[in-house]
Design brief:
Elements lengths: L1 E6 L5 E8 L5 E8 L4 H18 L11 H14 L5 H19 L9 H10 L5 H20 L25 H14 L1 H11 L5 H6 L2 H9 L1
Antiparallel strand pairs: 1-2, 2-3
Helix pairs in contact: 2-3, 3-5, 6-7
Length: 222
């Protein structure tokens, strides 16, 4: 253990502390006291030396990634690793690309505040509440995964979703559906098939769009 004092030309002292830790490693710390007298600098150095021996050197500050840096890890380690549906993975990727990265990409995860969450809502003010909530949900899951993976000690902000009242769905009655089939049949086989898939088979729009002709042909032949 050693404490060395070095004077500065313009006043003050540099304190140079070198000591050997219980695990055998050596630790060195240098501090500058511009307004210290020599006796004050020595007393400070001796107090600091005792503190280091009792409590050990300070733990280096963890480098928290930015949202943009963490985003690919989130997609791979959460969405793909947990075998989410391709549509779910694509939704996360789209939200990150078009909303979260442009708005918060340069922010460290631990620096995302409640106010910045509100700014995200404001930036999406022209979007439907469901769309805004999808963006906020992706952000919330990301931050929770960062805590789970020890990138954060705790959640840095509170994310409250927008109220999104459920809409009442409208339905065609039988007469209206028959008229729709008649018009669709005149428009061509593709249009007629789409109406049948929705009306008779009960498929939703996304399910109809996701169908492939090979699948339809196989089912028809079977």
């Amino acid at each position: 253990m050693s404490v060395t004092l070095r004077p500065y030309r313009r006043g003050g002292w540099e304190v140079d502390i070198t000591l050997q830790l219980p695990n055998g490693s050596r630790y060195r710390e240098r501090r500058r006291g511009s307004h210290f007298s020599k006796s004050t600098a020595r007393r400070w150095a001796e107090d600091r030396e005792r503190h280091l021996l009792q409590h050990g050197p300070p733990t280096p500050e963890r480098e928290v990634p930015t949202l943009e840096v963490f985003a690919p890890r989130f997609i791979e380690g959460h969405a793909r690793a947990n075998r989410h549906k391709p549509s779910g993975i694509a939704a996360h990727e789209s939200i990150l690309k078009w909303h979260l990265v442009p708005l918060l990409g340069a922010k460290r995860l631990d620096a995302i505040t409640n106010e910045q969450v509100q700014e995200v809502k404001l930036a999406l003010v022209d979007r439907a509440p469901k769309t805004v909530n999808n963006v906020l949900t992706t952000l919330r899951i990301m931050l929770r995964k960062a805590v789970e993976w020890d990138e954060l000690e705790r959640l840095p902000c509170t994310i409250k979703l927008l109220p999104n009242p459920k809409k009442t769905m409208g339905f065609h009655n039988f007469d209206q559906y028959e008229r729709l089939l008649t018009v669709a049949q005149k428009r061509g086989h593709d249009v007629y098939l789409m109406v049948l898939l929705g009306g008779d088979a009960g498929l939703r729009l996304g399910e109809i769009v996701a169908l492939e002709w090979a699948t339809l042909i196989c089912r028809r032949v079977g």
